[in-house]
Amino acid sequence: MHSDSYPEPQVPAIGLLEMSSIARGVIACDAMVKRAAVTVVIAAPVCPGKFVILVEGVVADVEQAMQAGLYYTGPSHVDDLLLTQVHPQVLPAVRGTTKVESLKAIGIVETFTVAATVLGADAACKAAEIELVEMRLAVGLGGKAYFTMTGEQHMVEAAIAAAVEKLDGGLIIRTEIIPAPHSDMGDVVL
Predict the structure, then answer these.
(1) In which region does residue 57 sit, left (phi positive, over 0), alpha (psi from -120 to 50) or beta (all else)?
(2) Predicted confidence band at 35 (pLDDT cuts at 50, 70, 90)?
(3) Mean pLDDT across the chain, nearest whole number?
């Protein structure tokens, strides 16, 4: 049967655990991949001596993996996140594989945790027509994280507002907008 429409690619679920113990993070990661068929996107120590695990897969598998991981985090738990319909721009930004051709207005959202940055970026993408430029997750940042985006100024403003609302303000360190970035800013944020 011929059809001009093709099914949308399956939107993955992601699960993220952020712990204050590197050793406990390695144990939790092992438990997660033994429990369910998930793909490890990140499993690494980050500043300041924390450990972050990010897995992707179908919803049921990610839920099972998160249960296993949370069991092992114990008092080293810093933050966690389960997103069952992650926006398609989020994982490429996490992996550092986004390709943005040009900058319009630039938005920056800085948070206290890795999980908050991923959640905020997902909310921003779902709320407005923006492009994620990059996501920095705690490495060399003292445990903080941030993401940058570009788009028309009103869209960037709407995206930042959505991220702030989703995070309820408590995990946000700061947000900024550059309405008309200098051409040299491409070297800084692209």
Answers:
(1) left
(2) very high
(3) 90
For the chain, how far is it from start to end, CA to CA, in angstroms? 44
| Confidence check: pLDDT of 126 > 90 | yes
The pTM is what?
0.88
Nearest to 78 by CA among 108, 45, 55: 45
Give pLDDT, residue 190. 61
Position 88 in a domain: no
pLDDT of residue 2: 41
Q: Are residues 115 and 180 in the same domain?
A: yes
The answer to the question of residue 7 being in a domain is no
Domain match, 125 and 59 both: no
| Full DSSP string of the chain | ---S--PPPPPPEEEEEEES-HHHHHHHHHHHHHHS--EEEEEEEETTTEEEEEEEE-HHHHHHHHHHHHHHHGGGEEEEEEESS--TTHHHHHHT-------SEEEEEEESSHHHHHHHHHHHHHHSS-EEEEEEESTTTTT-EEEEEEE-HHHHHHHHHHHHHHHTTTTEEEEEEESS--TTHHHHH-
